[in-house]
Amino acid sequence: MKETYGHIRTQSSAPLLPYADTTPPSTPFVTSFRSKGYPVPSRRKSAFVLCAFVSVISLGVLASFAIHSSRSFPVSPLSSSAQDVLDSPFNMPPPETHEDDVATLPDEYPPWVLGPPTQSFRDNLRNDTKYITSWLSAGWNNDVMTYMNLIYLGVVTDRVPIVAMFTPSHIGGDAPVITFGEVFDVPRFREESGVPLLEWLEVKDPESEEVDELGCWNIWEAVQYYEHFPRGSSIPDWLRLDISYTRAPDWVKQIPNYEHDKCSTFWSLARLAYPEDREKNLGNVLPSPHHGVSLDPDEHLLCYDYLYYACAAQMSEYDYSYAPQWKHVGQYMHWTKEIETIAGQYVNHVFGLPEDGPVPPYITIHVRHGDFKNWCWEAETIEDCFAPLPVIARRVREVQDEILERKGIYIPMTRVVMTSDETDEAWWDEVAALGWARMNHDEQHTEEQYGRWHPVILDAAIQSGGLGFVGTDRSTFSVLSRRRVLDWHDGAVRMVLWGRKGADDH
Ligand SMILES: *[C@@H]1O[C@H](CO)[C@@H](O)[C@H](O)[C@H]1NC(C)=O
């Protein structure tokens, strides 16, 4: 299977080429809207259909709904120090129930919207609540990190984040989009994190033909020097938004004039979310592509073009235990029940176990080759660049030993799954000789059965379900799996170093 999602992260010490961060050069923002609507999972549609039915339900029943709904959105379970930072969104009062609300189903409409999705997003925003949104522009895994950053910036700025769908830029642009809630368990996120979260499809009707104008901040032009336009994304187009961008001031870039780091800190971005610095930086406006309107950044729905590079203190932050966007947001983004179930079935399948039986403790390896060969300038040959299988096997043994020592569980080599984009069958024969199972989506017809998104999503879910994980250093895909295994299972993790001969010797 071709692995084209996620990307390599460069280290600041490495020699860098322009664009060496491998994020594909972005295209100027899209100027024509796609044909109407995007697929929405049917479970949501059916919920909306219930409205008519609910409108005849008595107020007594409604009251019990209201109780139910407030139970779904509890106050933050976070520690009091976190609570200081995460102030108002957590303490938002449950919505009051009025007679007018009879037409809504409180359990299905989160408290941060007025009701079912509307033709214009503005008609569904509460006047006592502020919101924040942003777009995607990379492979899926990095887009997941971008949404984590967006949601955390919502925490920092006391705003309700609104996430859109995932776009198929790296799995073939003609694949359909997949909604956030088809991948991540949104109700569970809200309940366990205490952080408010909306999906765009809960705010604006995906079928709406109405084009909404919106003013946003363009931070892309302030943090890099090659593209003289806001970061390109197909998301505004999917959402039928006509964006007018205001160029952010140069001070949002953390390291002035340094081209190899595009970080803006959450707190420098937050300065633009509040009146004092916002007002000082208005005026540098690019008219919107469709209606040609010039708008200041919206105060009700705050918006930034691209937040992949947002950080708390430094780049590549997901490697670090302190990373607040992981601690307060990312770790609560669990897979949907459906994804978890399929991932478990796949693991059992490759081990030759009954698919619907219990999943035994296992270890996953993620070996990223493919495009990583472009980062082999320190190696004489490609063979020298990537860690050979015996070197990876040493890491697997370290993980086995640690799990045995800390948990008293022995995981044999036959309960190890390899996930990799390597296409050389001789290499896979060596993998099999080590006793490891192969996650092979071609053989399992994953795309045919579940769609184009599932190979990549299932690999991530499978990696995150193991008690041990051996990843590829500097792969952002491995970085998130490493954190999930650590924080979800108290598991054992190692990253295999590469890039020159003997890189992982230790
Ligand atoms: C806010 O919205 C409510 C209804 O949702 C309305 O009754 C109230 O007048 C509005 N307040 C303002 C200041 O517009």
From TrEMBL:
<protein>
    <submittedName>
        <fullName>Uncharacterized protein</fullName>
    </submittedName>
</protein>
<dbReference type="GO" id="GO:0006004">
    <property type="term" value="P:fucose metabolic process"/>
</dbReference>
<dbReference type="Pfam" id="PF10250">
    <property type="entry name" value="O-FucT"/>
</dbReference>
<keyword id="KW-0119">Carbohydrate metabolism</keyword>
<dbReference type="InterPro" id="IPR019378">
    <property type="entry name" value="GDP-Fuc_O-FucTrfase"/>
</dbReference>
<keyword id="KW-0808">Transferase</keyword>
<keyword id="KW-0812">Transmembrane</keyword>
<keyword id="KW-0472">Membrane</keyword>
<dbReference type="GO" id="GO:0016740">
    <property type="term" value="F:transferase activity"/>
</dbReference>
<keyword id="KW-0294">Fucose metabolism</keyword>
<keyword id="KW-1133">Transmembrane helix</keyword>
<feature type="transmembrane region" description="Helical">
    <location>
        <begin position="47"/>
        <end position="67"/>
    </location>
</feature>
